[in-house]
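>> received
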Amino acid sequence: RNLDIAIDGDGFFAVTLPDGTVGYTRDGGFHTNAQGKLVTGSGNVLLPEITLPSDTLEIAIDPEGRVNVRTAGSPDTSTLLGQITLHRFVNPSGMLAVGANVMRPTEASGTPITNTPGTTGLGLLKQGFVERSNVQIVNELVNLIVAQRAYEVNSRAIQASDQMLSTATNIVR
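>> returned
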């Protein structure tokens, strides 16, 4: 979809949460709400706010985050609507997950470093893509079964060793 945006590299999108605070997400599956604003699947508004005109024919988002549209009112010209910014953290693993693919900064994560995509270590944007999970469920299930079988074998080996030691102790008596 044209409103799917993946981040190729480091960075988070900033969104306004229902309580008015700012959260951060890598969920780039955007939609438009009733007012034409770009929102996540959960309805959180992208920051800075970008509002698409109701007569939008085509939307183009370049790797540096510039949002251009062609409208029915002027189909031959492209109009710059805004700039998507990205945010990165010194320690992103220190962020607090609040649910629905949204995280909040903590003291451990540090304050956000905000800039345009492709600068200061931030990734570039890819329109028409969404980020995949980095977990392959089939591989993980196979690995879980292998680990369970190894545990069972080790458990039986320990039981057999205990029985042999018990037998050896009884023979000595």
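>> The longest helix spans residues 137-172.
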